[in-house]
């Protein structure tokens, strides 16, 4: 592993640790949420804000030249060509409901690609880390394990996860439903944890819409390092959010895309 990637991963782990420490004391405590007022219930809590502040403090100390794109606070322009993309709690609706399927998302990217990604689930202590062809590993209660997608090639044998109908426009949901009709099993509402499960070889497809960059860049780093694919519905980069399609294999990606885009 290059020294620069080793340094970046060390900082990323420190950020994830800091976010865990900020969030866990507030989980399942009846924490009050505010509504961002985007036309549907879009909650934010003090835990979101505290976690992003904690991660930004780590970056201010260790990577002051890098940019920051976070969900809760203003962007910081990059002076290094690299930007940290942060979602302190992806799945705040799940968080305020007490489920353990939300996560802390961290990515390091430039204008064209994600160099590393982390999906961290503080409550159950699972961390999924991907950095190109250098790192693809999860840690947790069962110990460290390599991340590797499974080899499913047929929609009829695939398990599909999504946040529809909670997120996404009706016309986007129609595309999702066409894929859902063809797969073996569909599960709903796991937010970023769905991408972690795909990278771990537990499921095969994730389809979402209405995403921001900070929702998807961490998952891109993890899924791609595990050998999976993550694009937009048209097959282009999903770096900036929008409609995302993650698949374990190219065959599944192509089959799903053909149904999504008609």
Outline of this structure?
Helix content is 33%, strand content 27%. The protein is of the alpha+beta class and 262 residues long.
Secondary structure layout plus pairing:
Elements: H1 3-23, E1 33-35, E2 43-45, H2 46-62, E3 67-70, E4 83-90, H3 92-97, E5 103-109, E6 114-121, E7 126-131, E8 135-139, E9 145-146, E10 159-162, H4 170-180, E11 185-188, H5 193-199, E12 205-211, H6 213-225, E13 229-232, E14 242-247, H7 250-260
Parallel strand pairs: 3-4, 10-11, 10-12
Antiparallel strand pairs: 1-2, 4-5, 5-6, 6-7, 7-8, 8-9, 12-14, 13-14
What does this structure look like?
The chain has 262 residues and is an alpha+beta fold. The chain has 2 domains: 3-146, Fructose-1,6-Bisphosphatase, Chain A, domain 1 (2-Layer Sandwich); 155-260, D-Maltodextrin-Binding Protein, domain 2. The protein has helices spanning 3-23, 46-62, 92-97, 170-180, 193-199, 213-225, 250-260, and strands at 33-35, 43-45, 67-70, 83-90, 103-109, 114-121, 126-131, 135-139, 145-146, 159-162, 185-188, 205-211, 229-232, 242-247. A 7-stranded mixed beta sheet has the order 3-4-5-6-7-8-9, with helices on both faces. It has a 5-stranded mixed beta sheet with strand order 11-10-12-14-13, with helices on both faces. It has a two-stranded antiparallel sheet with strand order 1-2. Strand 5 and strand 6 form a beta hairpin. The relative contact order is 0.13.
């Amino acid at each position: 592993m290059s020294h620069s990637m080793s340094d970046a991963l060390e900082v990323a782990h420190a950020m994830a640790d800091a976010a865990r420490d900020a969030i866990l004391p507030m989980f399942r405590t009846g924490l009050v949420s505010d509504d961002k007022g985007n036309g549907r219930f879009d909650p934010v809590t003090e835990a979101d804000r505290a976690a992003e502040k904690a991660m930004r403090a780590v970056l201010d100390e260790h990577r002051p030249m890098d940019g920051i794109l976070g969900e809760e606070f203003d962007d910081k322009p990059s002076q290094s060509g690299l930007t940290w993309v942060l979602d302190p709690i992806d799945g705040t609706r799940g968080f305020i409901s007490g489920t353990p399927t939300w996560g802390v998302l961290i990515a390091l990217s430039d204008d064209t690609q994600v160099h590393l990604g982390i999906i961290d689930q503080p409550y159950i202590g699972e961390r999924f880390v991907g950095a190109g062809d250098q790192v693809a590993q999860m840690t947790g209660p069962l110990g460290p394990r390599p991340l590797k997608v499974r080899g499913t090639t047929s929609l009829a044998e695939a398990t599909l996860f999504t946040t529809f109908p909670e997120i996404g426009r009706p016309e986007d949901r129609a595309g999702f439903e066409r894929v859902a009709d063809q797969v073996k099993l569909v599960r709903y509402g796991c937010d970023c944890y769905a991408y972690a499960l795909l990278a771990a070889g537990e499921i095969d497809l994730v389809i979402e819409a209405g995403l921001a960059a900070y929702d998807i860049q961490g998952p891109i780093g993890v899924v791609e390092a595990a050998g999976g694919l993550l694009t937009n519905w048209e097959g282009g980069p999903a770096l900036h959010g929008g409609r995302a399609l993650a698949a374990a294999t190219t065959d599944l990606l192509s089959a799903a895309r053909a149904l999504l885009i008609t």
